[in-house]
Amino acid sequence: xxxxxxxxxxAACDATSGIVASVTSYLAGLGCYISEMHQYDDEENQRxxxxxxxxxxxxxxxxxxxxxxxxxxxxxxxxxxxxxxxAEPMRVLLMVSKFDHCLDDLLYRHRKGELPMEITAIVSxxxxxxxxxxxxxxxxxxxxxxxxxxxxxxxxxVQIVEETKTDLVVLARYMQILSDSLxxxxxxxxxxxxxxxxxxxxGAKPYHQAHVRGVKLIGATxxxxxxxxxxxxxxxxxxxxxxxxxxxxxxxAVGRDTETVALASAVRLHxxxxxxxxxxxxxxxx
Length: 286
Ligand SMILES: Nc1nc2c(c(=O)[nH]1)N[C@@H](CN(C=O)c1ccc(C(=O)N[C@@H](CCC(=O)O)C(=O)O)cc1)CN2
Fold this sequence. Notes:
Layout: E1 6-14, H1 19-29, E2 32-42, E3 47-56, H2 63-74, E4 80-85, E5 90-96, H3 101-111, E6 117-124, H4 130-135, E7 140-142, H5 150-163, E8 168-171, H6 180-185, E9 190-194, H7 206-213, E10 217-224, E11 234-241, H8 248-271, E12 275-278, E13 281-284
Parallel strand pairs: 5-6, 5-8, 6-7, 8-9
Antiparallel strand pairs: 1-3, 1-4, 2-3, 9-10, 10-11, 12-13
Residues 171, 174-178, 183, 192, 194, 203-204, 225, 227, 229-230, 232 line the site of ligand LMY7XDAE.
């Protein structure tokens, strides 16, 4: 794929002075124009984060050259960094069970060009949504999961992730709990949508819990998947006001909207390299 002249730099290191000056002078020296820049200094943990969108304006500079010289430039900072070519959309595998609203929404936004991604496959533990995938001309893989075949089916999923060079797995209402080993394999590259405003109402039936509790707000939470169910670093949340007159069914209907909004936003933020995982939290440059 042709290299574009636009790239995104993500970097993090222990906080100290001179980081921004060192990075921006290096990029300017190579004829790069910085069109967008965010930085955050976590004073509590002395950790520094930055994201820059840059355009190469020099004909003699390539992204590979920038990568090759970067470590030497920032060696004093022991920096974790990555450069992403904006012409290379992330490769994304979507997982779903029976509820179709999040998958449908992501496919619509992708069709409208809102989500810069290559969809590598749609994987489901049920056959119900195969027609939705086929309508879009996307490979559909049915991997039914039982307690007995879970390791085998998860191994099949990992093989698909590897053979399709998938960068990100999105659990768009996939209702099976991923094993610890799969969570480790997909660390930092699997996003789940939980149908409640975490930390409230974990587990498979949050709307009924919300109704019983009589909440006045319901919502959804998009988070990175970890072995601890519904405990992963939160990327995005969305809420809607409700009241005593809402039946569980109406709560589910309103909840669907919060799920699609939260998940689409979280996926877009990840695709645009705007999210840093940091302990069990995130830093997000919107
Ligand atoms: N390792 C993780 N796996 C998954 C997570 C996660 O946070 N960590 N999130 C879930 C999604 N989810 C809530 O958002 C969720 C899905 C399913 C269940 C559950 O209890 N499932 C039962 C089976 C239900 C069924 O077959 O329909 C189970 O797996 O025994 C709880 C929460 C996705 N995976």
